[in-house]
Design a protein that fits this description.
Blueprint lengths: L2 E4 L2 E4 L8 H8 L18 E4 L2 E4 L5 H4 L3 E3 L1 H4 L6 H8 L9 H14 L5 H7 L9 H15 L15 H10 L6
Parallel strand pairs: 1-5
Antiparallel strand pairs: 1-2, 3-4, 3-5
Keywords: 2Fe-2S, Iron, Iron-sulfur, Metal-binding, Oxidoreductase
Protein name: (2Fe-2S)-binding protein
InterPro entries: 2Fe-2S-bd, 2Fe-2S-bd_dom_sf, 2Fe-2S_ferredoxin-like_sf, 2Fe-2S_ferredoxin-type, 2Fe2S_fd_BS, Beta-grasp_dom_sf, Diverse_Oxidoreductases
Length: 180
């Protein structure tokens, strides 16, 4: 039975070791913020952080992550106060929200190792597919989160132009809630 640490909690999964991590997280651990998009590693909706690296959870098995540390969107920040989450809201980088958790996780892993990435680095580190096409906003959000992490900027409560305060307030909880 595979053992790993998920969101700082040791877990032993009573599942086949060849089960994709995605399904163990969603079905056994009830961590549904990690989304199923394609099952082939193309979309990035299932992105999690494993030992500091953004990894598509549909492409790794429980056996491959045994003994490792996994962080899902639910634990990135318990109060949704992580700079990436706040910057995504402030920059209006959330449209339908389905791909958002995967993008947030990829961005958080990138900024943890480089708080001042170039646009090309952001594009390479966040290969996620977004049907809504928010890519320019995602780039701005990652750059903004980097500035916050470098203490060059703070994120005000005011959302980006064109985003109502009510929409912004609804978007913040959606980034880490455990809904399918």
């Amino acid at each position: 039975m595979p053992r790993l640490t998920v969101n700082d909690r040791p877990i032993q999964f009573r599942m086949d070791p060849q089960t994709p991590l995605l399904w163990a997280l969603r079905d056994a651990a009830n961590l549904t913020g990690t989304k199923f998009g394609c099952g082939a590693g193309d979309c990035g909706a299932c992105m999690v952080i494993i030992d500091g690296e953004a990894i598509r959870a549909c492409l790794v098995t429980l056996a491959e992550v045994e003994g490792r540390f996994v962080t899902t969107i639910e634990a990135l920040s318990r109060d949704r106060g992580h700079p990436v989450q706040q910057a995504f809201v402030a920059e209006g980088a959330i449209q339908c929200g389905f791909c958002t958790p995967g993008m947030v996780m990829a961005a958080a892993a990138l900024l943890a190792r480089n708080a001042d990435p170039a646009e090309a680095e952001i594009a390479a580190a966040i290969p996620n597919l977004c049907r809504c096409g928010v890519y320019p906003r995602v780039t701005r959000a990652v750059q903004r989160a980097g500035r916050v992490m470098r203490r060059e900027e703070t994120i005000s409560a005011a959302p980006a132009p064109g985003i109502s305060p009510a929409d912004a307030a609804r978007a913040v909880p959606a980034l880490g809630t455990a809904k399918p």
